[in-house]
From TrEMBL, chain A:
The lineage of its organism: Bacteria, Pseudomonadati, Thermodesulfobacteriota, Desulfovibrionia, Desulfovibrionales. One of its GO terms (cellular component) is plasma membrane. Residues 14-130 form the Response regulatory domain. Pfam families: GGDEF. GO terms for biological process: cell adhesion involved in single-species biofilm formation; negative regulation of bacterial-type flagellum-dependent cell motility; phosphorelay signal transduction system. Coiled coil: none annotated. Its EC number is 2.7.7.65. One of its GO terms (molecular function) is diguanylate cyclase activity. Keywords: Phosphoprotein. This is diguanylate cyclase. The modification 4-aspartylphosphate is found at residue 63. Residues 163-317 form the GGDEF domain.
Automatic annotation (TrEMBL), chain B:
GO terms for molecular function: hydrolase activity. Residues 19-208 form the HDOD domain. It comes from Solidesulfovibrio carbinolicus. Gene3D superfamilies: Hypothetical protein af1432. The keyword GTP-binding does not apply. InterPro entries: HD/PDEase_dom, HDOD, RNase_Y/CdgJ. Keywords: Hydrolase. CDD domains: HDc (cd00077). It holds the Pfam family HDOD. This is HD family phosphohydrolase. It comes from the Bacteria.
Amino acid sequence: MVSDALCAFTRTQKILVLSPDPTLARLFDAAFTPAEAEVTIQSQGRYAVETLFTDPPDMLVVDAALADIPGPTLVTMVKSENVYRQLPVALIMDEAALGTDIDWCAVEVDELLTRPLTSAMLRARVTLALARATRSLDANPLTKLPGNTSIIGRIQDLIDRKQDFALAYADLDYFKSFNDKYGFSRGDEVLMMTARIIVNTVRSVGGPTAFVGHVGGDDFVFILGIDRVEEACKAVVASFDGIVPHFYDADDRDRGFIQSVDREGHRRSFPLMAISIAVVFNRDGRLKHFGEASQTAMTLKKKAKENPKSCYVLDKRQG
Amino acid sequence: MAEDLRTERKGRILAVRDLPTLPKVLEEVSKLVERPDSTTEQVAKLISMDQVLSAKVLKMVNSPVYGFPGRISSIGHALVLLGFNVLRSIIVSTSVFEVMTENMVGLWEHSLGAAMASGAVARMLKLKDAEEYAVAGLLHDLGKVVATVQLPDLKPEIERVVAERDCFYLEAEREVLGFGHDRINAWLADHWKLPANIKEGLSYHHKPHLAQLYPEMACVVHLGDFLVRSFEYGFSGDVGVTYLQPEALKILKIRPADFENLLDELSGQLVELADLRFT
């Protein structure tokens, strides 16, 4: 673990500052140690654009008083590029200029730094903006659950600490045909429902340290103590099966299946959705790497999928 | 009634923030939720005995915040989806009836009885998800509670009209408020994004034959309301028994023999219910 990195960041954060102000360098030096943040200051906006697009920083700080390009224009250039939308951007302004007409909803900045600046305030604001970006970057946009980076981080951390745990991978059977027939917004409703069932069940069974993540689409992950996982799986399966029929139209629900088009383009019937869960155990530090866990889980999931009904499969070799 | 007065009253109705319930109910639920070994089923069973808490739970789970408005009509499902954390906040945000208790106890009992009767009818007819019929039965007079809380000065007026004219509470509401609790129910159901089956049960329980989407739901609640009145359990605001729409029995295909069985079963259950004391 890198102990001198800024809060939870595992590596030095790159901060690009665009400003003609010579005093900023001193302020940043006082605010961050070199291990925490590598700060580059450029006085011209134009030259910075190329760097920005080829070697993007972790955070961009733009002075509104930039000489060649207006700060907000530069921010819009960067933010309109989808891969940089999540890049945290701070705007530096004179406090006195705040009263002027600025359309804050149109300016895509994430943080505002006003002169007079102090290094303490600079450190606090910049760190918060970086932390905020990390949180929102990895949250699933639909369910707001932690995404892949957090999931992998959590699992690898438990493996490194040789802690016993059960890792469950859950996904839905026939979700695609539901989505195809009813449209993606109805599909999203099902994903939100699934997320809430898993979160509430796993927390109530596994306590506050239990973890739930959303890999994406209809794939979810949860982690809890080995002795509690089967109880959680049973409860998730029971709740899912009880609730999911309510997400179908009444006639499909009564029929017990839907008509949709399969991958080959043929019309066929699909059963109501079910949830499949594959559980991998880490006992006595057996797992060395996250990849082993996910690979075992994928093999097990195929087994769980053979059953069209909701079910869970435990990794027998260690279970 | 002037249209703007009606609109203003509707606005006041929908602005309802806090629906109070009986102190004892709230106390019981709070105790159960704080116990570490309580199960969702136990809590759901208790919540299902109180129309205010049930309405709040359904309102919450069907709110667009959670991403599936209008989908959940069962208290058990709602609790699984909300989690105990949200449930605790619902309990904290519920106040108790200090005044008007006597009247509210009567309505509380009437609602509980109607829930039980509606559930029993649905089970007898082997309708799917009988619990949802019980929920609609429980909530069928919610509009009366909301009107009492939001338009408190008009409550004595309604009661005066009932006494003077010897008419039904619903008719008096229409005269004094400009609309009945069935209409209030429909507004609330829309506003809170309750599922369509619950909405029809709540808004058509006095005219079940007019329900379009879920006539069975409306008819079951109508019958449940009628039955609990005939057993004189609780107090709905009316002294007598309302008219039973023959169409409701026709729609539900209930034969006279079924009806007798139902009455037998209900009388037993109501005796048990009468032992419950929540005051």
